[in-house]
Amino acid sequence: MADHLLEVDDITLRFGGVTAIDSVGFHVNDGELFSIIGPNGAGKTSIFNTLSQVYRPQEGDIRWKGQSIMGQRPDKVAELGIARTFQNIELFANMTVVDNLLTGRHVRMKNSWLAGAFWFGPAKKEEMENRLKVEDIIDFLEIEQYRKSPVALLPYGIQKRVELGRALAMDPVLLLLDEPVAGMNQEETEDMARFILDIRRELGIAMIMVEHDMGLVMDIADRIMVLDFGQKIAEGLPEDIQKNPDVIAAYLGGELTG
Amino acid sequence: MQGRPKLFTSYAADAAIFPTRTQKVLVGLGVLILFLMPFDIPFISGPVPRAFPDDWAIIGGRYTILGQIPILNEGIPLIRFLGDGNWLRPMTEVFIIATAALGLNILAGVGGQVSLGHAFFMGVGASTAAVLGGQSSEKLWGLGLPVWIWLPGAGIAAALVGILVSPTAVKLRGLYLGIVTLGLVFIGIHLSRVFPQISGDTEAGRRYPEFDIRLWKEETPLINVSSDDTVTGILGLNTFEVTDRQKTYFFCLIVLIFMAFLAKNLIRSRTGRALQAIRDRDIAAEVMGVNEVKYKMIAFAISSFYAGVAGALFASFVGKIAGNQFNLFLSVEFIAILLIGGAGTVSGTLLGTFFVIILPELVEKGTEWLAEQESGITGAIADFVLTEGPGDFGPVSTANVAPGWALNVFDWNIVIYGVLIVVFLIFEPLGLFGIWIKIRNYWKGWPFTY
Questions:
Q1: What is the DSSP letter of A96?
Q2: Separation of alpha carbons A208 and B73, rounded Å
Q3: A81-105 burial, b if ≥16 CB within 10 A, otherwise e?
Q4: Mapping DSSP to helix (H, G, I), strand (E, B) and coil, where does residue A149 land?
Q5: Which residues of chain A have pLDDT under 50?
Q6: Chain B contact for A192, CB < 8 A?
């Protein structure tokens, strides 16, 4: 079964007596936009945290291109090409936009502290090459005028965009988007949807998106998985999910049929 | 084009150490002034004439421009071109403490790991310098190696100790890390008592190696730093005296400039960004691929390296120093330097050190000067401020021991120091650097307020 980019096999994550994720399994293909939806507390963000190994699930297995990544350090997972954004913005607040994006390039750069301290030579060359890549991303996300601002001073919508840029700077193969349009107005949401579609079309990056904006999810997702209380209650194409009685029950209340 | 924002045409220019021309000129001037400071510059410094002489043009160099201004004529304690004056030693101390502060800036200002153990690492550096460079005797260990071994050696030894300590530090953050590193200071003082062979007599300390630059252990040094010398000037036309103070000043200045250059580069490169990322959001930094354990270790090692080098410089500069001089007060002084100067920036650290070291000297010298004033406005101020004997009500006492309401200069310095830390914490968390940024932005936007 190594033909999927990412395979998650029945992972279970418990915090003491609380089961946050209850044997959930799914897979993501190359270049696919996979979406996870569900009510608050369903375990969507916990799944992201297990994928980047910030949380270690007690049971199950996560395989990246056929290789298990269970027990790896988060920075090793990042090196494999799994990048993510966060639900509540987790940018490096005192750094400028450029520096935030360059920090995203960290895994793709090599210069050591010693080379960095002397700067001239290989370190400078590498810094300049990566600055060029970062400028491409700044151009792509249309945040040129904020380049030198500390991110703490930027408006919320722009911060979300910078965070997406920081994840893109890692040259990811799989991008985890945790509520990319939460708290945004209509215009900002449309901008973000456009960026997500562009990322898929131009860069061919596979994405897992957690989102509450159903309009957006149904419009752009290839496949959808629905979670409720840590359990998977449905998976399928958007039009199937919309008709699924369990999903309607989870969102609007009522008895589960399954 | 005047008033237009500066446009960069390459990323290298954008990422330069001093990206604007103003910065280049200011720093260049600053370094030039620092290099000229130890000399008597004709028309600027030198013996202050009491009266305007008729033949001043002939004697020229012996008289000063500043000396023509009446109040300066009295010898106000300003920092001016120093000659071999009393200011040379405080300035040298500034350079040495700044070297150590740059290290703490990388750990605490850039990496966000507040350490109170910086004095301990200075002590490690001083002890290593003593063993590597010092002369051995019955009671003391010493290898008598040259400066190019003991100075980097002191840094490397301190860095290794820093790496040993870092695993504990990686598990802790904030206040807890502060407390653990606080313990190091006391361990250090204890060790200095346990090993008198390294740190010498508990009260007086031992003699530390001098800065003389030798190739190996030969008698006459390649470059003599520790004694006065006569140097032949340009074209062999004139000779001038260079004292050991002046040479020590240059030695420490060059070390500082080199270390500041390294620190600046480190901060603007990949390692510096990784450390800032850990400071701002440690979990996000890990998810972005920054190995937290490794980078905290690197930060500790580098910071300790700076402290070690500075400790060796300091011990050698003071000449004889006891192990318990590397105490908590010194550690707190570094925290104060970062707070007052502005944590996270090299220029802020340098400003902060200058301020913290020079201010007490200024207060002291100012009081001495005031105490000599008998008449006129300055005399009246002196009457008002100073307590010179019983019956005076000035807040500053000139006595060494000052019971009662008038505090002496040393007590006042401690008061000023504490008040400054509080004031900066509350009103200007970015320190002197923040004040500078505000002034700069005001003039950038002038005459508009935004």
A1: B
A2: 77
A3: bbbbbbeebbbbbebbbbbbbbbbb
A4: coil
A5: 1
A6: no
Neighbours of B181 (CB within 10 A): 25
* Nearest chain A residue (CA) to B292: A75
Run means of pLDDT, 10 residues per run, chain B, 450 residues:
66 84 88 79 46 39 47 42 68 95 95 93 94 84 87 96 89 87 93 85 78 78 74 57 82 95 94 94 92 94 97 91 88 92 90 91 80 75 75 73 73 86 87 86 74
Give the global pTM.
0.88
Question: What is the amino acid identity at position A93?
Answer: A
Chosen from A45, A92, A176 to mutate, greatest number of chain B CBs within 10 A? A92
pLDDT one-digit tens code per residue, B322-343: 888 899 989 999 999 999 998 8
* CB within 8 Å: B285 and A103: yes
Q: By CA distance, what is B11's nearest residue in A?
A: A128
Do the interacting molecules here have an ipTM over 0.85? yes
All CATH 3.40.50.300 domain ranges in chain A, comma separated:
1-81+172-258
Predicted local confidence at residue B253, as pLDDT:
94
Calpha distance A36→A81 (Å, rounded): 20
Q: Could you tell me which residues come within 8 angstroms of residue B209 by beta carbon, excluding any fewer than 6 positions away? A: B129, B130, B132, B133, B134, B135, B144, B147, B150, B316
Round to whole Å and give the CA distance between B358 and B417. Answer: 12
Q: Does B7 contact chain A (CB < 8 Å)? A: no
Q: Strand, helix or coil at A257?
A: coil
Contacts of B359 (CB under 8 A, 6+ apart): B413, B416, B417
Closest chain B CA to residue A129: B11
Structure tokens at B91: 């300035």
Nearest Cα to Cα of residue B38 among B251, B224, B222: B251
Residues A134-149: tens digit of each pLDDT: 999 999 999 999 998 9
| Cis peptide bond N-terminal to A238, omega within 30 | no
Closest CA to B45 of B34, B36, B32, B58: B36
Helices (H), A52-108: 74-80, 97-104
Domains and CATH numbers, chain B: 42-76 (no CATH), 88-359 (1.10.3470), 373-450 (no CATH)
Domain A1-81+172-258: CATH superfamily, name plus number: P-loop containing nucleotide triphosphate hydrolases (3.40.50.300)
CA distance B125 to chain A (A): 20
Contact A56/A49 with Cβ under 8 angstroms? Answer: no
Give the Cβ contact number of residue A54 at 10 Å.
16
Distance (Å, rounded) from C-alpha B277 to C-alpha B408? Answer: 46
Number of C-alpha atoms within 13 angstroms, CB side, residue B61? 5
pLDDT value of residue B144: 83
